[in-house]
């Protein structure tokens, strides 16, 4: 009786320990402040806005897609992505990139774009400002 | 208006039903017929409001905000119907609709079983009532009129003949950034229109349309199946609570087993239909991406499947008299399955996963957020509270020991392993709530040992007897499958080149499970066919696992550029790009690729790319050559036309008005559009017109003005490039959109002329991959579903005994 609980409890403890360990190992935190991203070598998920005024660049031969991103404070960084432009990048309002900052570039392994749910609302804001 | 009234009557009827069922439970005799009338009224109102929404969609009633936002003209009837659940309100409506229907069936089912009806239907009606509250006009009603909140509508969606009406002029706005025109519709405009006898349905003639990602067959099938599964998950919850109310824990197991089985069958099927959608149409390249939305529906499924196993133990152990074992576990898991369905809804609807999922979420507002918390909180409190209330009683009476080596223990271990898997997925998926997230590695690495345990248990449990098995007997039974599985694993390891130890063990586990299940299934097939269900579904799981191993570890990928007419070898196949053909009335383009082997062209795939008007974005759809043992998967990445006007040669830039780019030593600024008056009127009349993009080039202190022109004739656009010899610059526009951006390619003039050999030809960039044995995944799922169906049939028959 006692042994059963000890055994079961032991398995649960080992399982939870293993899960927590892997959680810390694979954990990617969100970062909204780019100045902090530039000072770390860790993989992060940066959330910000695509700097439309600086355009984006497509290198068809090397298959590199790059653009500038800025955070809520206005810090800018250049994002480099090895692959095609995401399906609805141009109409996106905010961008989430996963990757590492290294030598002046943010090397993204994944780009997620968020689209405005209602274009009109945006227009409304523009028109009234 | 009518819709909201019907929904409100439905809500009132459901509240009435709740009271009547409650009184029936309290012992009143004459309230049960009233409760039934109440529930039927609720269901009729739900069906009527769903029918009304569908009618509004099919007849394009853009006076409804929901229809305007998610639907549009020019879609096939099937797709048009799928706009019903294209948005948040409509998909909640779909959930409500199926809940209403499931409730009718549940009412009929429980009415035949004594006092089960009032206890079960009370809790089921409670979920229906909550959904009805969620769909009321203050929260998420799909019947809101478009003018109830001021809404800007693009002028192209308005009937042009009304745009010149004098009173409409006050409501017309022009976006200074891009020149597009909007009409703001609000209460005032509605009053004016109504005063002139113009109906809003005539005024607004086109909706925004459905997101092109959702415009395909799978959108028509995946969400409905998912929501039937969601609706049915409320049934085991209701049965468990019914048992708690009566404090009698024997009957509910066999009564609810068919419901759990069929519910989980549909939920599992829906999850994998979504997987096939992602793989075959959306071009994710795989069937599973551990995306939070996928995960959130997977968790209740895993817990529901664990529940099936522990319910079987309780049912089997009842044969000795009494209530059987795992009484408490079953109550907890039945409650948990439904609570996790609600949690999934909360995660995907509250906007909390906004930054972490590819599924687009709209934040629904604070009120809805709090209501969702209230919804899930209520059911946690009812479930956990009910169990806690009876805990002392349960703990004293049901604390049986299980024996050593028995099928019972194996099933229990299997259930615990499934719960561990559910915990992992739940933790990873919930991490974004705390501003964290995990890499996909987290799920994969933790699931490898779990999958091994499940594979081995999957085979082993079937060889064990329910009570106790002699080790001698076990080895005798094991021999054939063990030898067979070892031999097959060895073959896979040698020929497949698997050198990872864990992977070898996993392969063995999957093959072992397959061998045992097939062996027993064949034996049973000759005897009692009704008992086949478990073996068939476990065979499906084993096939699925083999598919996971094969595609997960032997997939080959390569990115290549295919020049038109030139054959290129890719991953052992000869690919030739044969040009593109317009499809779907010229809205989309299919890029034909011939696939050959050893000089013979055998097959053709045609991935699709197009620019969707909906969001002005390039959309890509993969194409797959299915070869039974493997898929040749082609996703398009990009295309360049080549020829003399080739712009792929230069560098592509996207410019907004006022933006500038640097190219070599020049700074190019896009100062604005040139849109002559006559062009404007010609465009309005549908004739040909020109729009120029004005550019300023400054270089070495000098400034040059130039423009590049877009010409539209009969709907065909052509572009006239600008050349600035002084700056050695060629600028060609390649697209222009209403949002006020242009795309230009910049190149040096001399470069194009002096190096003709660099002239690019028509080139298609693709990502090709070979997915070995991916058909095992789909075959596994189909076999699994068939197994579930067989089990449901058997357990339904047993439930009346």
Output the keywords.
heterodimer; A: alpha+beta; OB fold (Dihydrolipoamide Acetyltransferase, E2P); 5-stranded mixed β-barrel; 38% strand; B: 5-stranded antiparallel beta sheet; 22 helices; 23 strands; flat
If you had to describe this structure to a student in words, what would you say it looks like?
The complex is a heterodimer of chains A (about 130) and B (about 800). By secondary structure, chain A is an alpha+beta fold. Chain A has a domain of about 90 residues: OB fold (Dihydrolipoamide Acetyltransferase, E2P). Chain A is about 30% helix and about 40% strand. In chain A, strands 2-4-5-7-6 form a five-stranded mixed β-barrel. In chain A, about 30% of the residues are buried. By secondary structure, chain B is an alpha+beta fold. Chain B contains 22 helices and 23 strands. The two termini of chain B are about 50 Å apart. Chains A and B meet through helix 1, strand 1, strand 3 and helix 3 of A and strand 1, helix 15, strand 4, helix 16 and strand 11 of B.
Share of residues in strands of chain A: 35-45%
Largest binding interface between chains: A-B, 45 and 58 residues
The helix-strand sequence of chain A is: HEHEEEEEEH
Low-confidence stretches of chain A: 117-129
Radius of gyration of chain B: 31 Å
Shape of chain A: elongated
Tally the helices of chain A: what do you get? 3
Sheet with the most strands, sense and barrel status of chain B: 6 strands, antiparallel
Strand order of the largest sheet of chain A: 2-4-5-7-6
Average pLDDT of chain B works out at 86
Mean pLDDT of chain A: 76
Q: Sheet with the most strands of chain A?
A: 5 strands, mixed, barrel
- Quaternary structure state of the chains depicted: heterodimer
According to CATH, what is the topology of the domain at 28-116 in chain A? OB fold (Dihydrolipoamide Acetyltransferase, E2P)
List the uncertain runs of chain B: 644-648, 752-759
**Cα-atom Rg of chain A, whole angstroms?**
21 Å
- CATH homology superfamily of the domain at 28-116 in chain A: Nucleic acid-binding proteins
Strand % of chain B is 15-25%
| Tally of helical runs of chain B | 22
**What class would the helix/strand composition of chain A place it in?**
alpha+beta
